[in-house]
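debug: dumping io for the single-chain case to check the tokenizer round-trip. Nothing else runs in this session.
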Amino acid sequence: MADTLEFNEIYQEVKGSMNDGRLRLSRQGVIFKNSKTGKVDNIQASELAEGVWRRVALGHGLKLLTKNGHVYKYDGFRESEFDKLSDFFKAHYRLELAEKDLCVKGWNWGTVRFGGQLLSFDIGEQPVFEIPLSNVSQCTTGKNEVTLEFHQNDDAEVSLMEVRFYVPPTQEDGVDPVEAFAQNVLSKADVIQATGDAICIFRELQCLTPRGRYDIRIYPTFLHLHGKTFDYKIPYTTVLRLFLLPHKDQRQMFFVISLDPPIKQGQTRYHFLILLFSKDEDISLTLNMNEEEVEKRFEGRLTKNMSGSLYEMVSRVMKALVNRKITVPGNFQGHSGAQCITCSYKASSGLLYPLERGFIYVHKPPVHIRFDEISFVNFARGTTTTRSFDFEIETKQGTQYTFSSIEREEYGKLFDFVNAKKLNIKNRGLKEGMKQSYDEYADSDEDQHDAYLERMKEEGKIREENANDSSDGSGEETDESFNPGEEDDDVAEEFDSNASASSSSGDGDSDRDEKKPAKKAKIVKDRKPRKKQLESKKGKDPNAPKRPMSAYMLWLNASREKIKSEHPGITITDLSKKAGELWKAMSKEKKEEWDRKAEDARRDYEKAMKEYSVGSKSESSKTERSKKKKKKQEKQMKGKVEKKGAASKSLSSTKSPAKNLSESFKSKEFVSSDESSSGESKKEDSEEEGAASPPPSSEDSASGSD
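debug: decoded output
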């Protein structure tokens, strides 16, 4: 027999809604962790009084009753898991897991039984429905009627607001059945009534959400916020977490209370209550209880008379009454020495606090993200400037949070923190590259305004030079400066320190001629990779293996015709929606079958890609060899042609050596223009002849001198 049993995707019924989570059964007890809020319900094994197994809407469910009257309901079990659970309860909890089915006759006449915090409406021995009395917000009575009103649940699509019971009169004297029914309900109902005096009152506290100044009255079971316009009553059972966070200016403190369910103001829901305190504000507090009551209830955590900073007193009282730990920032320290990072979320500026087990952002809107619900984080460049970056968080439910406009100096500290917490980083390989890129901008960003000023000064000088040129020269010269063919050259001249004022000088023209080829070469160099990219895009091999389909696409291809036949005339969009719903509702066993098929297809694809890559490499090597062979042949042909040309020129030079010698001694100044129709070709021929013909002997030179 295993010591523990674990179940995923189990739903806990809380106030009419089903909360997804994980259930774990061990020797010590039962633990359920809510996936949405992270709240943990721990039921000790010694507290369990009864276990009931029954069929419910989501398969089969487990109902646990404790000795102090609490009821816990968990749904989402399979029928085959009953034997395993029954044996576990017998072995470790010494309880029989009883099977009880709900009555489905549809009758509305029966018996009401009160057991602990549960109202059960039974027909015979079978229950029809059960109402946890903690869900009741109000109970009113009539002549023969009792009306129960319930807390509204924001998570449920449809909420039950009211139930009325008809209570027939009895013949017994002195006992009113309606009043007896109402008293049984009110004794266990979650009805907030401000009866008696408050333990203590904090006057005119600054509240950021909901915004305003509120008096906070502390009662034994709930918190009362009293403002000029609105009043809120917050039961301590709805408080999830408490946070005490220092402001970046080191002069203020945030006290954050996380609530589930949230408080309501019209259609607005506030999941967080955020109070802002000044560190310099002190208070002397006296509790409205005698010292014995304080010692008995709070066991030394509070005293009757206390004094200190206002934020310390509020947090101390809340911690004692709610009985929850206060979360403070951990070891993280930003670039400026603060324990938070300035950033923006949804166009509002705020502070992001990296905690030991999550992130919290204050204050508008407040966001708390636990590490265990984070799928991955991502560091992205800022969209508007290089001085900042964005920090993105995506949860396992697919929700994405983007905290933007974070100063680049915070990158190293934040990355090291995320890495130390072992969170998945989407662009982990870019750590060094991003650090270098941010360091590259360090010098230029520090004097960014100076660089802008220098650029303005240079543009002013250019305008002055253009104005001087236009006043000295003619209008035609100014028009020529706007010639598209010469525009680049003129700009280059203006930035050239050696350029003369006049644009018609010979040096300036020669400079232009020298600069033109360099610019053309630069343009060609920039365009080469673009052509390669276009060629690579166009040249997609049709013989390459096709990528494998996912498990969902394989299932969709196989089930498309079936869906069409079941829903004739269905459109493509409706078909895809219907297919998504069917896939989501499919059991894990069936999904695993399609996952195996997708895995087989992926292996086949990888095998085909290996064979394809080997074949493509051999073909490319063949084409390269043929290209090299062609180039070699072309070179050989060019060499033969050059040799023939050199041999013919040497023959002509031996026939008229004297003429060649006399021409070789002539300088450029004495060469007449009518000796040849193209002087350029003659110069080239003479140079080639000088290079090809052997140097003259001493006898030839002597005869030439005579």
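debug: round-trip ok. The first strand starts at residue 5 and ends at 14.
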